[in-house]
Amino acid sequence: MKIELGWLLMATSTVENYLKAVLRQEEATGSTTVGEVAKELAVTPGTVTTMMKHLDEEKLVDYQPRKSLSLTLEGRSAALKVVRRHRLIELFLVQIMGLDWSEVHEEAEILEHVISDRLLDRIDVMLGEPTHDPHGDPIPDRDGNLAQVEATPLDEAEGGNYRIVRVSDDDSDLLGWLDENGLTIGEEFALAHPNRAAGVLEISRSTGAKVQLGVQAAGQVFVEAISA
Amino acid sequence: MKIELGWLLMATSTVENYLKAVLRQEEATGSTTVGEVAKELAVTPGTVTTMMKHLDEEKLVDYQPRKSLSLTLEGRSAALKVVRRHRLIELFLVQIMGLDWSEVHEEAEILEHVISDRLLDRIDVMLGEPTHDPHGDPIPDRDGNLAQVEATPLDEAEGGNYRIVRVSDDDSDLLGWLDENGLTIGEEFALAHPNRAAGVLEISRSTGAKVQLGVQAAGQVFVEAISA
DNA sequence: AACAATATCTTGATCAGTCAAGATAAAATG
DNA sequence: CATTTTATCTTGACTGATCAAGATATTGTT
Ligand SMILES: [Mn+2]
Ligand SMILES: [Mn+2]
Ligand SMILES: [Mn+2]
Ligand SMILES: [Mn+2]
User: Fold this and answer.
1) What nucleotides of chain C have any atom within 7 angstroms of a protein Cβ?
2) What is the pLDDT of residue A198?
């Protein structure tokens, strides 16, 4: 007769990663599947099946085998807490510790599971309760409210003037390259009429500098149109 | 036929804790035993036996069942790296993050296993390559050299004038109490002739304040004699 | 030495997380 | 609709870490 305190209080870091994966896909595409989660976490589908049965018992996901898979409110809230941690940690590492925006994701991927609430709070305060991480992703607030970022992937944009509002944070090489070319959050540029056939986009900075990038890379850069 | 790269490179956090425990006891008493390690890590002796056989294979400890147990050079070096991490992290949490010296040990106990070398380096530089942690413990340098702290446990001191050079860092309550009474590293005081029978020591600060503390607590405070 | 007490070891089990590979259901295709 | 393809599930096995409890060696005592 073992006392089962705190299973729902004490999500293991593995569990947190599964919840995050489901959340990310729900946010990105409105829903998810066992297969997608397996791909994202680089495990076999069977492993995900097993885990989802567990999480369903813990009421963190709603899982109907072969039918549907989604976060419960509780699961979503747990996932958002981890995302909050992740993004605050990333910003902390860039802003306070002076790490590069291209090298903080991996570190945050681990620290998000182990930092104490107390330390996270210090970080939050130290950063002035920020709303966005170094890559332009919104930071969920303490109550788990997540702001929407509506932005167009650059590879789908027409010719015109744009500002960078978000960049996918998991491709370290791309982030490094963007940084070298001065293409960081908030930067503005003009996009030439896209020449789709070639699969290359050309960008002009106000400095006169021109930069080419492939559609592949462009798909990870999110922009909003500006007037100027 | 699985390729066994990196077992010695990649000590799991459990392994790191075993190595640290052995090191701590070797430093404290010159040697250690399966039983002592078991006590320190709050596991059963059998578990330690099993682990030591593994560590012996990995050449991290020298283990002769029922005979002797000690760190190899490699094991010692690995343990010292973890200790270095632990202490740098503690100091970072106090100095940069503004946490209390009574609440950093637990946090460091976890972070020591997950912080990247890159981040640790930033911390080290940010702190000015410090030599001692918030509790007066010496921080091993990059090459694994550990300075000796020779200091007397307060409960063994005669009457006279002393300076606090080190405090045991794992008793949060004691640390809190010491802090409230202004008894931090570097502070000086006069110890009245100890009245051993009562098990209570009396300390006088230069401010005139007097403080009593039990031998139990005094045993965790380490001092050096001063002239004044 | 003989016996008791203590320390340590061994064995068999459990738990979380995972994979491989075969079984099955659902979807897509002709 | 019958068949192929794809997605998902199930089962059996493995790893690292652990405990319980019985077996054994060592040490201390008379
Ligand atoms: Mn990230
Ligand atoms: Mn990010
Ligand atoms: Mn400590
Ligand atoms: Mn310390």
Assistant:
1) 7-12, 16-22, 25-26
2) 86
**Residue A71 · residue A22 · CB < 8 Å:** yes
Coil, helix or strand at residue A140: coil
Q: Are B113 and B82 in contact (CB under 8 A)?
A: yes
CB atoms within 10 A of CB B147: 11
Look up residue A28 and give its amino acid.
Answer: A
Q: What percent of chain A has pLDDT over 90?
A: 87
Q: For the residues A126-132, what does the mean pLDDT come to?
A: 98
Q: Please report the pLDDT score of residue A195 as a whole number.
A: 79
**In angstroms, what is the span from residue A140 Cα to ligand 1's centroid?**
13
Nearest Cα to Cα of residue A127 among A90, A81, A102: A90
Q: Which residue has the least CA–C1' distance to nucleotide D24?
A: B66
**Residue A58 to residue A80: CA distance in whole angstroms:** 17
**For residue B123, how far is the Cα from the chain centroid?**
19
Q: H or E stretch including B7? A: none
> What chain B residue is nearest to A127 in terms of C-alpha separation?
B97
Q: What 3-state class would DSSP assign to B166?
A: strand
Mutate to test the interface with B, among A95, A106, A107 (most CBs of B within 10 A): A107
- Contact check, Cβ <8 Å, A123/B97: yes
Looking at CA atoms only, how far is residue A123 from chain B in angstroms? 8
| Cβ neighbours of residue B5 closer than 8 Å, sequence gap 6 or more | none
Looking at residue B199, what is its pLDDT? 87
Closest residue, chain B, to A116 (C-alpha): B107
Q: Is A186 left (phi over 0), alpha (psi -120 to 50) or beta?
A: left
Tell me the one-letter amino acid at B107: E
Maximum Cα interatomic distance, chain B, rounded to a whole number of Å: 73
Domains belonging to chain A, first-starting first, are 13-71 (1.10.10.10), 152-225 (2.30.30.90)
pTM of the model: 0.91
- Radius of gyration for chain B, computed over Cα atoms and rounded to the nearest angstrom: 20
Listing DSSP states for B74-131 in one string gives HHHHHHHHHHHHHHHHHHHHHHTT---TTSHHHHHHHHTTT--HHHHHHHHHHTTS-S
Ligand 1 centroid distance, CA of A153 (Å): 18
| CB of B125 less than 8 A from some CB of A | no
Q: pLDDT, tens digit, for every residue of B6-39?
A: 344 478 999 999 999 999 999 999 999 999 999 9
Length of chain A: 228
Please state, in angstroms and as integers, the Cα–Cα distance from residue B209 to each residue in A220, B153, B182, B190, B227, following that order: 64, 21, 10, 11, 20
